[in-house]
Design brief:
- The chain is an all-alpha fold.
- It has one domain (about 1-304).
- Helices cover about 85% and strands about 0% of the residues.
- It is built from 14 helices and no strands.
- It is a multi-pass membrane protein.
- It is found in: Membrane.
- Pfam families: EamA.
- Belongs to the EamA transporter family.
C-alpha cells in the first residue's frame, strides 16, 4: 500500500510538469501539433514491449472493430485534447492551463451520466458546481475587456477548457472497454493511432515535423515522451493496482496545487488572487468528488 502512494506522488509530480514543459517548448517556437506527435510517438514506442507481453498473456487478437475503437479514443485524446493543451500553453500561463485541465474529472460527470448511465448523487453535483465556479473565477470575466493581453489569456484558458472537456469524453468512452484490453494494450494502440493522426495533420498543413528543434528542446521532448507520457502512465497503473482506481485519482487532486507551485518556481509565473481562489475551489470540488467516490467504493465493498 505504501508503495502505491509513492506511485501516486510520482505520477502527480510528473503530470504536474506537463504544462511547464509545453510552455518551454512553445517559447522555443515549436508547433503544438509537432510537440504532440513527437511525445506520443515516443510514449507508444516505450509502451510497445509491455503491450506485446500483455497480448501474449491474454492470447488476444486485435480485430478491425478494436482498431476502430482505438481510433475514436485516439482522436479525442491526442489530436484534440492534448494538442489543445499544447496550444493553450502558448497563450496563457502553464499554471493556468494545468489547473483548468485538472478540472477534467468533474466534466466526466455529465458524460458518464449520458453515455454510461452512471448515477449522479448529491455530492457529485455539488463538486461539479463548486469546480465550475472555480473555472469561471479563473476565467476572470473582467479580462474580456482588458484589451489584447486579456484576450490572449482568455484564448489560452478557453483552449485548456476545451482540452479538459475532450479529455473527459475520452475518459468516459475509454471506460467502456479498457478492462477488455488492459491499460498497456489500450494506451499503446491509442498512442500510435493518435500519433498517426497528428502526423497526417502536420503533413496536410505543411507544419514542421522534426525541423526547428534545438538542443534544449530535444531534452524537454525526451523528458515529456519518456517520463510524462510513458513512465507517468506506468506509475499511474502501478498506483491503481496497489491501491484502487479511486485512490489513484488523488493524482488529479494534487496536481492543481503542485503544478502551480512548480510553475512559479521554474517559470517565475505570477499568481493572481482570482487564480488562487479558482484553484482553491477546483481542489475543493475535486476533493468532494473524490470523497463521494471513496464512500461509494466502501459501500460496494461492504455489500459484496
Amino acid at each position: 500500500m505504501k508503495k502505491g502512494y509513492v506511485f501516486i506522488f510520482l505520477t502527480a509530480l510528473l503530470y504536474s510538469t506537463q504544462e511547464i514543459a509545453n510552455k518551454m517548448l512553445m517559447k522555443n517556437h515549436l508547433d503544438g501539433f509537432q510537440i504532440t506527435f513527437i511525445i506520443f510517438l515516443m510514449g507508444a514506442i516505450i509502451l510497445t514491449p509491455l503491450a506485446i507481453k500483455d497480448l501474449k498473456q491474454r492470447q488476444f487478437k486485435i480485430t478491425g472493430s478494436d482498431c476502430g475503437y482505438f481510433a475514436i479514443n485516439a482522436a479525442l485524446c491526442i489530436p484534440i485534447a492534448m494538442a489543445l493543451l499544447s496550444f493553450a500553453c502558448k497563450y496563457t500561463q502553464a499554471s493556468t492551463s494545468a489547473v483548468i485541465f485538472s478540472s477534467n474529472a468533474v466534466f466526466t460527470v455529465p458524460f458518464a451520466y449520458l453515455i454510461l448511465k452512471e448515477k449522479v448523487d448529491k455530492m457529485t453535483l455539488i463538486s461539479l458546481v463548486v469546480s465550475i465556479i472555480g473555472v469561471v473565477i479563473i476565467f476572470n470575466p473582467s479580462k474580456m475587456m482588458a484589451g489584447s493581453k486579456g484576450g490572449t489569456d482568455l484564448l489560452g484558458i478557453t483552449l485548456a477548457l476545451g482540452a479538459a472537456i475532450a479529455w473527459s469524453l475520452f475518459t468516459v468512452i475509454s471506460k467502456m472497454k479498457i478492462e477488455k484490453y488492459g491499460g498497456y494494450i489500450f494506451n499503446c494502440f491509442v498512442f500510435y493511432f493518435g500519433a498517426i493522426m497528428v502526423l497526417i495533420i502536420l503533413l496536410v498543413t505543411g507544419r514542421p515535423i522534426f525541423s526547428g528543434i534545438e538542443k534544449e528542446s530535444i531534452l524537454v521532448l525526451l523528458y515529456m515522451g519518456i517520463f510524462i507520457k510513458a513512465l507517468g502512465y506506468i506509475f499511474y497503473l502501478g498506483a491503481i493496482k496497489m491501491t484502487s482506481a479511486v485512490t489513484a485519482s488523488m493524482v488529479f487532486l494534487i496536481k492543481p496545487a503542485l503544478a502551480t507551485v512548480l510553475a512559479v518556481a521554474i517559470l517565475g509565473e505570477k499568481i493572481t488572487a482570482s487564480m488562487l481562489i479558482g484553484i482553491g475551489l477546483i481542489i475543493v470540488g475535486s476533493y468532494i468528488n473524490f470523497s463521494s467516490k471513496k464512500s461509494q467504493q466502501a459501500t460496494q465493498q461492504v455489500v459484496e
